[in-house]
Design goal:
By secondary structure, the chain is α/β, with parallel strands linked by helices. The chain has three domains: 64 residues, no CATH class; 212 residues, Alpha-Beta Complex (Spore Coat Polysaccharide Biosynthesis Protein SpsA, Chain A), CATH 3.90.550; 153 residues, no CATH class. It contains 15 helices and 19 strands. The strands form four sheets. Strands 1, 8, 9, 10, 11, 12, 13, 14, 15 and 16 form a ten-stranded mixed beta sheet that branches. A four-stranded mixed beta sheet has the order 3-4-5-19, with no helix packed on it. Strand 3 and strand 4 form a beta hairpin. The longest helix has 26 residues. The C terminus is likely disordered.
Length: 495
């Protein structure tokens, strides 16, 4: 069935979303400590999460977590579980959830063949075979071809007479959905069987507003260099680690290629004024309203990546242009660098390449290690813990500076290199070092030089887009670093 979509005024940026209900986690809801959490021998001191947090537990709480897993049986345990989830120290382990009360919304413009492939995959997967589907034609040039592809049982076609953008198309589907949950799927994805159930299970937590799967590369018969790079470095692939989606963390957003939302939490939905970054904006607005967002890599959808060089570079630059709007709407949340002042000063001293400045950098790291040790008198070895944490912070800052020089701030770095031989050496070394480190971490099948070359093109295109957006909006907001002025240190409430 085809219906014209009624126009609606653009969603105003900054309109507050509803807050989550003050409802505790339900009985039977389980959480499991995340991998890589550091615990003291007595279990009462825990360090982990992103950014890292130091949490002290009561003896009772430590005893409950002795096996690494906790099941809610009363309000006090529910409060402890919530605290661990919010700190990123534990992951939810809800009971399996049936796939129901969900509408699938597909925004699309032309791409009739990809829509047909997606609908075929949805109907072939038993859990989604009978779910209602809303296809929103966002001003296709060949509307008849799209209508033919959407002509299936249980599929309703909504039509925008003119192209309004992906945010508006998703919002049209959101307004027309009559279910508690809405799954947004872009037309160029192919969900793997069983993808939806793990996402819906996250909503057993009454404070969860959004859950997202991992977006992997759709296999191609003869992958080229860009195909192989996208397999490991697509900006849509958030990686193998599950976790909470929190601004200024290792998992600061999830892409809208596929997401599931609680309809009552997202208000009017995406900001229709944004053609780029509207998914990041929604994540940040939901977080600001108090909702929780989860990334669930066990659920997977495959995505048809752009791998023609011109289209690929254009897309990367377009992603960068959205940084200015996001930085203005969410101050401090999309900074290219987030580090403690002492670590920035120490890195600057080390860059001098001389014994005196290096000694001062070591002294700064030593003072920080002592201060951290004093905050952890109950650690197994406070001095060792302080040294390791300060060195980890210094390394993290150095890696961020390398990334900034070759991505967000490469025009400035290039200008410096044009007038300074030392700056040229530093920039070349940074470009090679950062690229080789990324090659090792990515596990790519590309050779080191191939990966470094494509990685540098990736960063150049994205950084160019960031500067374009900043100049267009007349702001330096997406280029300014953010200083971490204090570390997180919290105690659990007594369970």
């Amino acid at each position: 069935m085809t219906s014209p979509a009624r126009p609606r005024p653009h969603t105003e940026p900054g309109i507050p979303l509803p807050s989550p209900p003050d409802t505790p986690l339900p009985d039977g809801f389980a959480v499991e400590l995340a991998a890589g959490i550091h615990r003291s021998h007595n279990g009462r001191l825990m360090l982990g999460g992103s950014p890292p947090r130091l949490i002290r537990l009561t003896a009772t709480a430590a005893r409950l977590l002795a096996g690494g897993r906790l099941t809610v049986t009363d309000p006090k345990i529910a409060a402890l579980a919530r605290r661990l989830l919010d700190a990123g120290l534990a992951h939810p382990r809800p009971l399996p959830s049936p796939v129901r009360d969900t509408t699938i919304v597909i925004p699309v413009r032309d791409r009739a063949d990809q829509l047909d492939r997606l609908l075929t995959a949805l109907r072939a997967d038993p859990p989604t075979s009978a779910l209602p589907v809303l296809v929103v034609d966002d001003g296709s040039e060949d509307a008849a071809a799209l209508a033919r592809a959407a002509r299936r049982p249980g599929v309703r076609l909504l039509v925008h007479r003119h192209n309004l953008g992906p945010a508006a198309a998703r919002n049209t589907g959101l307004r027309n959905a009559g279910t508690a949950y809405v799954a947004f799927c872009d037309s160029d994805v192919v969900p793997e069987p069983g993808w939806l159930a793990p996402l819906l299970a996250q909503f057993a937590d009454p404070a969860v507003a959004l859950a997202a799967p991992r977006v992997v590369a759709l296999p191609v018969p003869e992958p080229g260099l860009l195909d192989r790079y996208e397999e490991v470095r697509s900006p849509l692939d958030m990686g193998v680690k599950e976790g909470p989606v929190v601004p200024v963390s290792g998992l600061s957003y999830v892409p809208s290629a596929t997401v599931v939302v609680r309809r009552g939490a997202v208000g009017g939905g995406f900001d229709e004024r944004m053609r780029v970054g509207e998914d990041v904006d929604l994540c940040m607005r939901l977080h600001r309203a108090g909702w929780r967002l989860r990334y669930v890599p066990d659920a997977r959808v495959a995505h048809h990546h752009r791998t023609g060089l011109r289209d690929w570079l254009t897309q990367r630059a377009a992603y960068g242009t959205g940084a200015a709007d996001l930085a203005l709407r969410h101050p401090g949340q999309v900074a290219p660098l987030y580090a403690a002042p002492w670590s920035l000063v120490a890195c600057a001293l080390l860059l001098r390449g001389r014994a005196g400045p290096a000694a001062l950098a070591a002294a700064l790291a030593g003072v920080t290690a002592v201060r951290l040790a004093r905050r952890m008198p109950d650690a197994d070895d406070p001095r060792r813990a302080g040294v390791l944490l300060s060195l980890a912070a210094l390394r993290g800052t150095a890696e961020q500076l390398l990334r900034c020089a070759t991505r967000h701030h490469w025009p400035v770095a290039l200008a410096g290199a044009a007038v300074s031989r030392r700056a040229r050496y530093v920039l070349v070394a940074a470009a090679l070092a950062e690229g080789l480190v990324d090659h090792r971490r990515s596990g790519t099948s590309l050779g080191p030089l191939e990966h470094v070359a494509i990685h540098r093109l990736d960063d150049l295109a994205y950084g160019w887009g960031v500067w374009q957006g900043a100049l267009r909006r007349r702001t330096s907001a997406p280029l300014r670093p953010r200083l971490a002025l204090r570390a997180s240190n919290s105690r659990s409430r007594r369970p």
